[in-house]
Amino acid sequence: MRRIEPEEAMVDAPGHCRRVAEMISRHAMDADSFLADYEYQYMLTMAVRQVIEQSSHFPTEFRAAHPEVPWSKLKRLRNDSAHDYVMLDNEWVWEVASGDVPAIARILEAELTARGVDIEAELRDSGFIQ
């Protein structure tokens, strides 16, 4: 398995964040609708897991500089969903999808923009947008 480099993860993560936002928007879901729809729960959980997986490769210094993101909580959600340790708390998944993922997207986009990264070009190159 190929090792994901920290910079690569930071550039790819906004695309995964946008997918989460698009799923929420496309399905016009709120928490109650999400909690009532098993297929949507599964789909959104997998998308959130991709964001968390990418974030696990972010540089330690970057994560330390953003304590407003509950990194350890996110890692626990990723592990629980990937290894099926427990029945997932879908309210928790919704909180992450609707709150933490947008926060990660804002932080990353600000950081990448400050570094001169053309986020839209990166997203096109990686197939996240057409």
Q: Overall mean pLDDT score?
A: 89
Report strand %: under 5%
**Helix/strand order, N-terminal first:** HHHHHHH
Count of the domains: 1
Q: State the distance separating the first and last CA atoms.
A: 28 Å
| Poorly predicted ranges | none
**How helical, in percent, are the residues?**
over 70%
Rg is 14 Å
Structural category is: mainly alpha
> Major beta sheet, specifics?
none
Treating each run of at least 4 consecutive H or I residues as one helix, how many helices? Answer: 7
Annotation, overall tally of beta strands: 0
Keywords: Hydrolase, Nuclease, Nucleotide-binding, Phosphoprotein, Toxin-antitoxin system
Protein name: DUF86 domain-containing protein
Pfam family, one: HepT-like
Any overview of this molecule?
With 130 residues, this protein is mostly helical. It has one domain (6-125). Helices cover 72% and strands 0% of the residues. The chain is built from seven helices and no strands.
